[in-house]
Amino acid sequence: MKIDLTGKLAIVSGSTAGIGLGISKALAESGATVVVIGRETAKVDQALASIRQSVPDAQLRGLTADLGTAEGAELLFAAEPRADILVNNLGIFNDVDFFDAPDSEWTRFYEVNVISGVRLSRHYVPDMVKQGWGRVIFLSSESGVATPADMIN
Description:
By secondary structure, this protein is of the alpha/beta class. Helix content is about 40%, strand content about 15%.
């Protein structure tokens, strides 16, 4: 099945590697203009090159920003004030014992893994509703259902 997303703008958080990069490639293959976002310019550039290698005519934009912070989200909103498709894929993990992780680390996990997607959705969804079309996807891992002992956070 071929989905035609020509003319649609897709924003994918956590898109410089792994599942986010794969989603970005698939969206580009379907004709969407894809915004690839990462905390390091070199990784953003590498992801853009990887997508272009697979999809030579891909319509891509890159942005260096930490979407786990309000400041990073504001950078995205300034660069891309609207979106048709939002894929909330951002997530972090640290191999730390449940009892040893300080409150600051738990707060950071929550900020990145939960609040970042909420923040982006609050910004982009109102325009999607107004235009009568939009898609928001929140990704997680199977660890949310069957959590390995070393991934309790």
